[in-house]
Design brief:
mainly alpha; elongated; 74 residues
């Protein structure tokens, strides 16, 4: 890629909204995103990566830090 094309691309991206630039980069690098998604799916299905439970209640977080009303220390 020549420098003039890179410069034009940078000015084009700078004039876009964040959502537009994100969609532009996804379309430009869609082949790389596909490879990453495939690799992550294979890792998950083969059991190399465990599923994570991301929900934590506020009580669980307070209990973890030792700030519950019952005064139990961790």
């Amino acid at each position: 890629m020549s420098r003039s094309i890179r410069k034009k691309e940078k000015t084009l991206i700078s004039q876009m909204t964040p959502a537009e630039s994100h969609r532009y980069m996804l379309s430009k690098y869609s082949h790389i995103k596909l490879q990453i998604d495939t690799a992550n799916g294979e890792k998950f299905s083969n059991g190399m990566v465990k599923a994570a439970d991301t929900y934590r209640s506020p009580y669980d977080l307070r209990k973890k830090r030792g700030r519950t009303a019952d005064g139990q220390q961790k």
